[in-house]
Amino acid sequence: FGDVPSALQYSLVHLTGDFPITAYTFPARAVLLVGIAMGLCTLATFTGIFSSGFVNYVTRQREEELLAAAENRMCGVVKAGIKLQARYRGMKARKEVAAKRRRAMAPDLAAAAATTFMQPMVSAHTGAESADSPEADSEPSRWEKFQEKFGKFRRHLRSFTEARTPAGLIVMSFFSVVLVLNVIATLVGTIPEVGDHPSSGLIFQVEEVFCDTMFLVEYILRIVAGGPRNRVTAPWRLFDLFTLIPGIAVLRNLALGRKIIQHSTAERVVEMVILCRIVRVLDFPVFRREVVTVCRALKSASGLLIMPGFLSFHIWLCTSAAFVWCENQYQGPFQKEMVSIPSAMYWTSHFLIGEWAQIDFSPGAGSRLCILVALFGMMTFAIPLGIIVESVQTALMLELVETTGLDELDKLDRAVTKDLEFEAEEQGVVAMASQATMK
Hints:
79% of the residues lie in helices and 0% in strands. The chain is mainly α.
């Protein structure tokens, strides 16, 4: 802080919310406190204005997508109603045709009953009628009966695994508790004081075998129940199968009489896989809707992140090259860490997100580059964050559209359409006024 140009670098880094230097006098701390309170708000406003242009453009497209989603839902309801109505009319028409046939055959049956050969004619007629009736069809085979019974069993088991029955709710909640306890036990087992205890090995082995057995039972129940989410190739079922691998290693240790806690590389891998089981919490019914919303938001944002992602990577690469040149050309204090572009990219990735692990650069070169990165580089990296936030907001709106009644959807459609028409008219008036001014 010997002069104002040198102080610009450090003060700007503090205003971005990072504090690589904290040893200040009391008056300097008071100034720093006031600067942080005012500077953070100013930089946040500047960053918001810088990135809001692209986000607003995306928002206008999202409004049209929301209107299209509401219209598609209303059209789907109308199509479903038309199909149900057509099916009902078809069934009604078939019943009327069958009734007309029965009424037309009634006089013939009455005339045949008056003849001498009434009994053979009736038997012949009843034989023909029975041949056309469903009862005359061949009996289902044993395989078809088995398929029907197994289908009913799978439907009941699917309701059980999805916790739609009281017994299923209790059992699936038990499996969820076992999952949480297994992850907690693995975390506790990594503590040296617990893992090195003589009796801890057997306890953790028994706990792991019990939990793996419960996970295997749950996996088999879900696979047998079937359904779109319970296919063998479904993502969650593949992840469940992956998390069952540690059970094989534990059984192998038991068979060989080894301790489960050996502090080896293989054991660390097993612990990592066991800790990955915590991801299965996202498959709980309580969080399922939120997970679907987040996945939908990331899917919708993936296409919009290509251009900002390329821009961010370009800035990252160019900034790293500039730091390497500045520090090596002017013999800066950070020259040892900036020996190549890959190593500089590691440190620059921290700088661009606002984390300044190193603040001392070459005077007049690296320090000025630090100011430019704090002003513009961090703001450019804020654009993808804004797009992701906007995508999550749109996903929440789509979920609201899917759960909203048709009457409310109609009102929302009319309100948004009026707003769009008003904005279009307002833009047209502004354009006409500007043309008149130019003339």
